[in-house]
Amino acid sequence: MTLPGSSQPQAAPIAGSGDVLLEVRNLAKNFAAREVLRHISLEIASGEFLTLLGESGSGKTTLLRLIAGFEQPSSGEIWMSGERLDTLPPYKRRVNTVFQSYALFPHLTVEENVGYGLQVSGAAKPEIPGRVTEALQMVKMQEFATSRPAKLSGGQQQRVALARALVNRPKLLLLDEPLSALDANLRKQMQGELKSLQRELRITFLFVTHDQDEAMALSDRIALLKDGGLEQVASPREIYARPATSYTARFIGQTNLLRAEIVDGVARCGSLCWNATPSNGAALFSLRPESIHLSPDGAVPAGAVRFRAVVRQQIFSGSSEHLELDLSGQSLRVRIPARGPLSGEQEFWFSPADAVAVRK
Amino acid sequence: MPWRSANDIEMYSRAYKWIVSTPPILWVGIFLLLPYALMFAHSFWLVRDGTIVHEWNLENYAKLFQNPVYLEVLFRTMRMAAGVTLLSLLLGYPLAYYMSFHTGHSKDLLYQLVIVPLWVSYLVRGYAWKTILGSEGILNGFLEYLHVTSAPVSFFLYSPFAVVLMLTHIYTPFVFLPLYASLEHIPRNLVEASHDLGAGSRATFLRVILPLSLPGLLAGATFAFVLTLGDFLAPLLVGGPSSIMIANIVQSLFGTAYDWPLGAAISVCILLLTISLLVLTERLENRWSFR
Amino acid sequence: MKRSSQLNRRSPLLAIYALLVFAFLYLPIVVLILYSFNRDGVGGFPPKHLTIAWYRLLFTDSAIWDSVLNSLLVAAAAVVLSLTLGLLAALALDRATFPGKSIFRRLVLLPLILPGIITGLSLLMFAVLRGLPLSLVTVLLGHGTALISVATTELFAGLQKIDRAQEEASLDLGATPWQTFWRVTLPNLKLSLIAAGLLIFTLSMDEIAVTFFLIGRDNTLPLEIWARLRRGITPEINAISTLIFAVSVILILVWYQIRTRTTGKEAHELLERP
Prior knowledge:
The complex is a heterotrimer of chains A (about 350), B (about 290) and C (about 270). Chain A is α+β, with helices and mostly antiparallel strands and about 350 residues long. Chain A contains eight helices and 20 strands. With about 290 residues, chain B is an all-alpha fold. Chain B has two domains: about 1-40; about 60-290, MetI-like fold, CATH 1.10.3720.10. Chain B has helices spanning about 15-40, 60-65, 70-100, 105-120, 120-135, 140-145, 160-185, 190-195, 200-230, 235-240, 245-255, 260-290; strands at about 45-50, 50-55. In chain B, a hairpin with a 2-residue loop joins strand 1 (about 45-50) and strand 2. The chains are: A alpha+beta (about 350), B mainly alpha (about 290), C mainly alpha (about 270). Chains in contact: A-B, A-C, B-C. Chains B and C meet through helix 1, helix 3, helix 4, helix 5 and helix 6 of B and helix 1, helix 3, helix 4, helix 5 and helix 6 of C.
């Protein structure tokens, strides 16, 4: 299949089974004079778990609502399996949503909630109970079939919402921060279940979250949004190891941003200098805290950048130590394996390959 | 009177609680409970030779059920109340639905436009209808002006229709308010969820919005029904002999007919009917509100 | 965040219907006002010869103004009476527990939903039993008692919005309960009190069903109008009705503004549940 509009600079190779399921072309949305989405182009592969990650106000939920059909785009198009989607009302799209606050119908029982989509879309009557039971089994909620949502805990409501959205067998499932209302433990558990459910059902998931750990744990690819624009689209490993921008580097994990000057292939930042590829001029590098090592901890490989710095602060967190270094006025964050108190000046090193040039 | 301890409100001393609760309890006891009790007592007394005799008996209630006039009027009143309720809902529900789901910035203004007639004098509004519907009235003048009719039509005024029309005008805002409140309380993502699951506007209305607005609908209907049930002014203003309602009978028994005990007995019936309706609808409302 | 969404699609039929309902609600009032300026009296169409003669007549009609004065007196006293008792009742419902509390709550609110004739007649029997002559005092008794229901609901809603920690802080800082009441509770309730007062005033000025049975020789304004209606209708009644309407609208809108400031837009608990 040829894909027009795939010249997006940030676009990374698509994961999943390969075929493009959903294609967002140059999509924009304004609320009054405010630009909420700025010309987004994105492709989602069939069977993929794609996460829209961003801070509140980044436009991630708006993008989801445009795909669901709750909002109309100001410009641009949405296509699904060769069919124009954005001109259809929400109830004609083969897309279902798990809402942030679940949006279970309070006047219906669990099984009525799950059966709702089948009933309104005119599924064959005798088929309904079986499919409802099947969906409830999938989320292990069959014993609550006759309860009302108000009687359920947050995690249970979450499961029902999932079953309700899946019973229609959508091609694409939209999940709008579905885990944000759960406490930390339950959240971890649900993440695991979501992921295995997605693998089992081979349904494409488009997941919205502001939690980068959650995005890393679940996704095949992450699309990071900032101020209504796509910042980077890549797999979790790639986006962490190779952030394209300083925003990405700071948003995903922690990092040190080094403002360097490059002259003839050598980057210089204060007393540090290393070989770098970008052309001459000012450049910004991201250096992850765990990429900086304490020299006495092991062999220092050849070509490593060595430097001495004062340990200004040390915070112990079980398996690791978080250090704050003072390198002649510049502050560096470092994470090393736990190794007991440190003080004064120490020698550290990092590999030039770990200093990733990022756009501003 | 021994006070039970209140765990959540222990910061207020016993004396504080005494001081705030005693005066209203006493006042309400003396000027509300006692008069209602007196009404109840009267309904078991008699009038003999033009004075009320405090002899306990059930004759007043027997009269009520033996004389078909009373029951007939009671049933007519209930029919009219049902009519007012239905018409108010027919006017109030679409208005509330429209305002809640289809208006944006003008919502607040429209809301104020509804509550203004709600609190504006019953008499002023009733009087307005009298001037419109009368045989010399404005509606007749208007119809003659348009040459629809050539002579005044008198059936507008002094008919049950006029009473129902006037009371519908008065109670539509009453019906509107709880309806609107319950529609406003429906989380909008439920409507989105319904669309998302494949339901169109019609199915969403019937399966989600209507069921969730039932408590408000019930509250509004109760208002209209109960208040019409005890109304005696509308028939006097715009009704005629054919639209006498049960409260008019009470009023005349307390006035010219001077049979307070019988009037009290009918009042007790209205009161009991009202209270049982309130209890019933409260139960239903609780069952239908899924918070 | 408020989103303009798909749900707010235009629906012209519904809009027209809503417009018609508004027309139904306002047309009688508009007609009433229009005919107060009609020289040839109430009736006939279209109104001709606009005049303010009826207002002139009205201003020289001393019986009307006597009744206005009576109504003002009763309304002012009813505001004081029902606000005081309503405030105490609201405090009691919010903060005290006592046997029969839920019965008390229902009883206080009963006049709000009960037909006026029942409350009016009950108080009439009470007055006759106690040998109280019917006068403006019995009318006040009726209004004051019936409108406690309004004061209680409005002030209870206001109390619910007060953060109880404020009062705890006051007590913690060494203020006595009495000082706390005057310096913390009451100032917090100020707007609610004004709003409730306005509402009670308006309702009392307009009250007719309860007043009907408790009135003595001195008429309140609605009863004076009622008495005149029996003698036939004149544009003078339209004129006074127009004035009542204008004053009510002003009071209601002021009330609404204060009310939304104290308890938020949708707060109309008074009538959301009977």
